[in-house]
Design a protein that fits this description.
This protein has 251 residues and is an alpha/beta fold. It is 53% helix and 13% strand. The chain has twelve helices and seven strands. The longest helix has 18 residues. It binds guanosine-5'-diphosphate and magnesium ion. Magnesium ion (MG) binds next to helix 1.
């Protein structure tokens, strides 16, 4: 049985770095047969060698040149092409022989998640094996109470859109401010205090509503701290994926 793992999160959160780091860890420590899939048509260099690469079909640079588009237009076009070709793409991914297939997604998550490409691909991909999403929280977006609420809301929106079991990780835990974010995540009273301190007037009310939502939602998500850069937390990520995989079996 194959497990497909898609890495999703805002630009720069570490999708590509984690695809590589987690893959290397799985190969070395679990002796798993891993295949790598790149679905980012805009990337230049990759830290892993892709077994399937969307750039064989089209790249952002080609689309800009051939269809006289700007970078945003080309990304929207790429997302349309990804949806139109989802059967071809999934056939090629499905033909790869592996225990785990790691799927690196477009830098800009909105072209994958908030357009039809992502949902269409995942729906088809599910026929080839259990398919889960690793949603990556970037400390840059989560270092304030309302920022953390924003990051959580994005993760939930992603799960609703893609309709796949989703686990959450806090990446870049080698950076300094992550201990504080961890405290925000695990201490609801501290989260509340910080939300009140950060905002003023009517915004306090809004922030507190968001904080309450995070409190509720964090009961269902165990967020693990990882670093794609140093490789710390890969084992925790593996058990998270395993838990989600077991849920897939029940679906
Ligand atoms: N400090 C630190 N930087 C990281 C980590 N993971 C990724 N980065 C850096 O964040 C930037 C964006 O990473 P990338 O994997 O390209 O993000 P993507 O756009 O989501 O694919 C790069 O400069 C990475 O070196 C991490 O765990 N710690
Ligand atoms: Mg990337």
């Amino acid at each position: 049985l194959t497990l497909n793992i898609l890495f999703i999160g805002p630009a720069g959160c570490g999708k590509t770095t984690l695809t590589s780091a987690f893959g290397k860890w799985l190969e070395r420590d679990v002796k798993a047969a891993v295949k790598y899939v790149n679905l980012d048509p805009g990337c230049k260099v990759l830290p892993y060698k892709p077994d399937f690469d969307i750039r064989e079909l089209f790249t952002i640079d080609e689309l800009m040149k051939d269809e006289k588009l700007g970078p945003n237009g080309a990304m929207i076009r790429a997302s349309e092409l990804m949806k139109d070709n989802s059967n071809v793409i999934v056939d090629m991914i499905g033909a790869l022989d592996a225990d785990v297939k790691l799927v690196d997604t477009p830098g800009q998550m909105e072209i994958f998640v908030f357009r039809p490409a992502g949902p269409a691909l995942i729906e088809t991909l599910r026929k080839t094996g259990a398919t889960i999403v690793v949603y990556i929280i970037d400390p840059a977006l989560a270092s304030t109470a309302s920022g953390l609420a924003t990051a959580f809301s994005l993760a939930i929106a992603t799960q609703l859109r893609l309709d796949a079991p989703t686990v959450m990780v806090l990446n870049k835990s080698d950076e300094l401010n992550v201990q504080d974010i961890d405290e925000l995540l695990t201490d609801p009273e501290y989260l509340r205090k910080r939300a009140i301190a950060e905002k003023s007037g009517a915004m306090i009310d809004l922030a507190l509503h968001c904080v309450d939502a995070v409190k509720e939602l964090s009961k269902f998500y165990r967020v693990v701290k990882i670093s794609a850069k140093t490789g710390s937390g890969m084992e925790d990520l593996y058990s998270l994926c395993h838990e989600a995989f077991c849920c897939c079996g029940e679906l």
